[in-house]
Each structure stands twice: as C-alpha cells, then as structure tokens.
Queue: 2 jobs
Job 1
Amino acid sequence: MELCVALDMPSMDENLTLVRSLAKYNIWLKVGFRSYIRDGNIFIRKIKEINPNFKIFLDLKLYDIPNTMADTAESITSLHVDMFNVHASAGKIAMQAVMQRLKKFDNRPIVLAVTALTSFNNHDFKEIYGLDIKQKADQFAIDAYESNLDGVVCSAHESMSIKHMTSNSFITLTPGIRPFGEDSQDQQRVADLEFAKNANIDFIVVGRPIYNSTNPQDKVKKILQHIVAK
Ligand code: C5P
C-alpha cells in the first residue's frame, strides 16, 4: 500500500513548504483542483525540483465528451505526471477514447476512474444516481475495467468487492482515510489505516489529517511505519 498526500493547502508556498518537509519520503503527492487551477504547471515543476522521485497524481476528475476527454488526457500525459483520473459516470465510450488515445505513449500515466465521491452518503448519492452507492460503485468499476483503465478511486469500504469483481491487480485508490481515527470532517465514508491494510487497498490518500497536524512530517513517518508493520 502506498501513501499519497493531498496538497490542498491555501497557497502554493504552504504546499511547497509541506513538500520540502516530506522530501526524504518515498510517497505520492496529489495535486487537486484547487492547487492546479491556482498554481498550474509551475507547481508540478517545483515539486519535481524538490525531489524528482516524487510521484504525482493529478486529481482533476475529468468529465466531458469523449473527444475532449481524450484530448485532455493527451495534454496531461505531456506534463509527465504519474497518474490522473476521470469520472466513470462520463461513460464507457469516453473512458475507451481516453485509453485509445494514450496507446501511442510508451510511458503513459496510470489512469483511474472515480466511482462515488467519498463525501456522499447513500441518501444523497441515490438522489442523483438512482441506485445505492455500493451497487452503482460496483457497476462503475466494472465499466472502468472493461474500458481498460488501470483502476478506480473508491471508498475503503468498496475496495474488496471491486477487486473481487474485476481483478486483484485492478488498482484501488481510496480517499477519506483517517489514519488513526482523526475527525472525518466533510467525508462520509471514512476508514482508518488498519481497515485500509486489511482491505488490500493499493493507494491511500490523506490530506487534512497530515497538513493540519502539528507535525506533518512526524504524521507521515508514523503512517509509513504502520503501513509496513505486520
Ligand atoms: O483532507 P482529506 O484527507 O479529506 O482529502 C481527501 C482528498 O481526496 C481531497 O483532495 C479530495 O478532493 C480528494 N478526493 C476525495 N474523494 C474522492 C476523490 C478525491 O476526497 N472520491
């Protein structure tokens, strides 16, 4: 299981200070909507300057018509990020168009599909999608698998059944992780590290429990120790 730290702080300087403090760790960094829209590609370049071995997950959750999604996937690949994502609800044709377009690259990023946002509870999700989260998340995961994506973004509670229905090698990345039972804030479907380990998850995303802690470096160290501990 790998740790991906969400860089969602209020300014690029604060994010870069956090990144510098984590430079010695072998971790992934998640650049999301807020940071990317505000700071753009310069932010990605600056992260790589701090440590070229940092892996970057560009979390823009693409949702558009198939041709625009494929064009954008190609542009993202030219940024040399290591992973990005699309919404599974954009549909199989759009996901297939993305993967088809990326075939020409020898070294393409990992592509994941978002199933159900971890901030949804079942009631609110059902109002939009018409089905229970579990049922719909499973369906979205199968769609992504059949469209040749590498994996999905899902909650820790869905990871096991998704792997069971697709393949053990189909990647699961789970936000909403509160490593040692920290406050869930706006996240509805949270899990701690112990749960994540038992659920055979490939990547955990942790934001506020790290960057809002009094000592983010120490928190990352403890998480990494817990991940490797038997
Ligand atoms: O601060 P916290 O640990 O809740 O951050 C979770 C991160 O994961 C945020 O950047 C959020 O945008 C992202 N995310 C999520 N749920 C998804 C996909 C991404 O919370 N389904």
Job 2
Amino acid sequence: MAEGLFFVLEGIDGCGKSTQAGMLEEKLKKENIPAVLTREPGGTAVGENIRDLLLDPGGTMGTCTEMLLYAAARAQLVQEVIQPALNQGKTVVCDRFVWSSLAYQGAGRGAADKKIYQLNQEVTKGLTPDLTFILDVDVEEARRRLEQKNATKGGDRLENMDMPFYRRVREKYLTFAQYNPVSVEVISSHEKPEAVHCQIWSKVREILPGRE
Ligand code: TYD
C-alpha cells in the first residue's frame, strides 16, 4: 500500500491554523479520504501531559528544556500516531511540526538551528511533510485574536510572549517558505476561514493521488 500524504499547518499563535486543520480534516473525510487529525504538542497521552507542562502559564523553563520537551512529545507522536497512519495509507493533518521548534525555540528563544534540526531529525526519523502551509497574519492582528480568545481565562505561557518575540517567529516562518518554495505554501490568513480553507484545499487537491 502506498504511504499516505502528510500535511502540516504552521504559523504564529492566533493565525487560525487549528480552525484550518479541522476544516481540512472534515473536507478530506467528506471526499472519502481516510484522514487523521493531530496536533503538537500533544496528540498522545504522553504528549498531552508534556503539553500541560510546556504551556503552564505559571511555569518557568529554560530554552534547552523547552526544546527537548517539544521534541519528546514529537517523538511519541511520530511513533504512535503519524507514522502508523501514513503506513496505512491515511492522510495525516498535523497542527504544527518541526518548523514550530525552529521558529519558536530557534528564532524566538535563540537556540541554534543546527541543534534543533539535528535533534528533530533523530526524533522524527527524518520524516518530512509533503506540504506545509504557513498561515500568515501580521503580529498585531494575531494579538487581537488572542486577546479575544483569552479575554476571560488569560493566555498560555507561549501566548504571553511579547511582540518582538512573535515578529521573530513570523519572520522565520517566512524565510523558511522562501527557501522551500516547492514544499511550503504561504497562505494569507487575513481572509475569512472559508476563503482560507478554499486556498488550502486547492493545493491539497493538486497532490492527492488520482485527483489532479
Ligand atoms: P498551539 O497548539 O498552537 O496552541 P493553541 O492550542 O493555543 O492554538 O501551540 C502551543 C504553543 O506551543 C504555541 O505557542 C507554539 C508553541 N510551540 C513551540 O514553541 N515549539 C514547538 O515545537 C511547538 C510544536 C509548539
């Protein structure tokens, strides 16, 4: 059986990628394409526990600890969920992957790209997405959306970072796209969710087997 396709959605907090990941999974299922939706950090029992540690707004953590915990959650997710689903020919939609670590722990926190890359090659066993969507939105708009979402409960540890941090993260994503024009699509996320979804779907359809 042919391996399934692997799609990843990336972007700064507030870019709308979780909404889009859900819409993509729903559309795939409507088209009778077996699909699995998962997210990082999380997606497994161990990963969800690590997620709680990572996002606890009261917690403090060094960059190296943060980088290793994201990688640990990812190792479990690849082994337990992503690779088995791909082996069964299923399409996998993942909300964040290795590029979140390069953008947040690399550009955001200052960890060396090479270190993050090597660690993640190890934990993913070299697995790379067939297509990564970067949902791009300016930092001010993302902040407005997060403030609305968190009006009553406050943001998590990463969502509470300052604007310069998010500017660095966004720039890193855009640089990544520039250097990987074939495997990365930047989609403006200023439009309504349905319009963003149509753009994502048209790219996905282009590479779905037998559907070009
Ligand atoms: P996310 O799932 O986008 O949060 P939410 O459910 O609130 O939309 O991601 C959680 C946070 O983790 C987000 O701020 C980005 C951060 N993150 C990293 O810093 N490095 C990583 O490798 C990953 C996967 C996420």
